[in-house]
Amino acid sequence: MQPFNVNEYLRQHIRTVADWPAPGVQFRDITPLLQDPKVFRVLIDAFVHRYMDRALRPDVVAGLDARGFILGAVVAYELNVGFVPIRKKGKLPFTTVEETYELEYGSATVELHTDAVKPGDRVLLIDDLIATGGTMMAGKKLLEKLGATVTEGAAIVDLPELGGSQRLRDGGLALYTLVDFAGH
């Protein structure tokens, strides 16, 4: 009997959609990971077991809009720590700090409530996928503006050919990902 390989199991449940949202793009769709309760539990447990370790345990989990909310909220709940959303500009009702980052065509801005974290908080920053790394780097900068320390960035999928994971590491962010789609 083969040992259970979490990473391969999760990879088998990620749907690839060809030519979406544009011709030539191989979109990695994580929604099948969320639809099946067993697969969803394996996914969440992969993160929770890592971050239960005292050395990696965060004070707060921050999730990036929008799929990072799904993962981050459940991981935070399981770790018994708080969750904070990092949203697209204009979605948060209270006083915010913002960070603008470049996209392939134009720019985008994300925001965080000014009371979301405290100076010295250890924060796990989570999203579904790392492509160019722009959103995650903007999230890291937002959290640091408020005095928090981002201990690690986590995602289900890394698309290393797009250079985001290397840019994030070069920018001082340790990364943990479960499935790598290099050369696929």
Blueprint of the fold:
Elements: H1 6-12, E1 15-18, E2 26-29, H2 31-35, H3 37-51, E3 60-64, H4 67-79, E4 82-88, E5 96-103, E6 106-113, E7 122-130, H5 134-145, E8 149-158, H6 164-170, E9 175-180
Parallel strand pairs: 3-4, 3-7, 7-8, 8-9
Antiparallel strand pairs: 1-2, 4-6, 5-6
Could you characterize the architecture of this molecule?
This protein is an alpha/beta fold and 184 residues long. It has one domain (6-180): Rossmann fold, CATH 3.40.50.2020. The protein contains 6 helices and 9 strands, in the order αββααβαββββαβαβ. It has helices at residues 6-12, 31-35, 37-51, 67-79, 134-145, 164-170, and strands at 15-18, 26-29, 60-64, 82-88, 96-103, 106-113, 122-130, 149-158, 175-180. The strands form 2 sheets. Strands 5-6-4-3-7-8-9 form a 7-stranded mixed sheet, with helices on both faces. A hairpin with a 2-residue loop joins β5 and β6 (106-113). The radius of gyration is 16 Å and the shape is globular.
